Amino acid sequence: MKLQTAGIHHITAFVGDAQQNVDFYAGILGLRLVKKTVNFDQPDVYHLYFGDELGQPGTIITFFPWPQGQKGKVGGGQVGITTYAVPPGSLTFWSDRLTSYGIPFTQTTRFSETYLSFEDHDGLQLEIVEREAGAKSTWSFAGIPRDEAIKGFGGAVLYSGAPVKTENLLTGSLGMEKVAEQDGFIRFKTPADLGNIIDLRKDPVPFGTEGTGTVHHIAWRTKDDAEQLEWLDQLQNRGYHPTPVQPRQYFNSIYFRESGGILFEIATDPPGFGLDEELNALGEKLMLPEWYEPYRSQIERNLAPIQVRVPEVKKP
Questions:
Q1: For residue 213, what is the DSSP state?
Q2: Given the DSSP bridges, would you call strands 152-159 and 78-86 parallel, antiparallel or unpaired?
Q3: pLDDT, tens digit, for every residue of 13-53?
Q4: CB count in 10 Å sphere of residue 49
Q5: What is the pTM of this model?
Q6: Coil, strand or helix at 248
Q7: Are 139 and 146 in contact (CB under 8 A)?
């Protein structure tokens, strides 16, 4: 049977200050900090995960705060825009909220949908769009009603250096359906309710530079470890060079760079973020994999303290 991803599992980006990152995604956008851990390859750097109440696939954005990192340039070979979905009728709430925090935004249209387009403090490009699909959020924070809260990813806009090859990968290997083409974008759809709409810039985009304010990779969902091994075989047979399976504590991953330069990951839905914390306490403690536990005191000393809080409103 042909493999087909259900859509986005998570998106990972580089940012600067960790507290500023928490203030923006938890305090302003109202996402839940579901896991506070470290970069497994560089434990002096946080790895922060934000999502819905349970941190379900299709809602998770993760960050490597890199205070001394150089500013990146958004461009080809990257996810250009990360899109969030909110319930129909919520855009006015969100435009008022962005205004109250002094965050500039523009209103744009793509495929007959209206988007609020804005940037976080590091220049990461974001959008909010109203969508019927996807269950409403069960998480409420910082004065955001559940009826207007972000549900999860609406999708993403891919900036490829080789769009035709990227399109062939999305439809031929990842099993996405091409559903529309308009105004320089090609739209693809997956079966999930969230993280299911992918727009690809039709023309090649000049390559960007990795750094703060840019996306490092986008991860696609696979249901379990057995199916992930099927993906591994399929990608190898189609000439890609995926990594061996990498344990990421809360999911297992394989990585490969597609022909347009974007780093893709295929991540398992299980075991999820309840693996090492009670669901009602997700994100409250610094969680470390067992091989770093002997070094906990040293690791904690090297990390600036952070807290989930409501940032001060600038324009009440």
A1: T
A2: antiparallel
A3: 999 999 999 999 999 999 999 999 999 989 999 999 999 99
A4: 24
A5: 0.97
A6: coil
A7: yes
Distance CA 270, CA 253 (A): 11
Residue with tokens 């991953």: 253
Burial (0-12, 13-18, 19+ Cβ within 10 Å), 315: exposed
CA angle 245, 248, 254 (to 5 degrees): 30
Across the strands, what pairs with 286? 36
pLDDT tens digits for range 210-231: 999 999 999 999 999 999 999 9
Number of Cβ atoms within 10 Å of the Cβ of 223: 13
Mean pLDDT estimate for the chain:
96
The answer to whether residues 165 and 260 touch, using CB atoms and an 8 Å cutoff, is yes
Question: β-pairing, 177-182 with 185-189?
Answer: antiparallel
Give the model confidence (pLDDT) of 151-196 as tens digits.
999 999 999 999 999 999 999 999 999 999 999 999 999 999 999 9
Pairing of β 125-130 and β 113-119: antiparallel
How far is Cα 248 from Cα 228, in angstroms, rounded to an integer?
14
For tokens 């409420």, name the residue: 140
Alpha carbon 312 to chain centroid, angstroms: 25
Residue 167, H or E segment: helix 163-172
Structure tokens at 233: 């075989």
Lay out the sheet containing 246-247: strands in order across.
32-39, 42-51, 60-65, 8-15, 214-222, 263-268, 252-257, 246-247
Tens digit of pLDDT for each residue in 256-286?
Answer: 999 999 999 999 999 999 999 999 999 999 9
How far, in Å, CA of 167 to CA of 152, rounded?
24
How far apart, in whole angstroms, are the C-alpha atoms of residue 252 and residue 85? 26
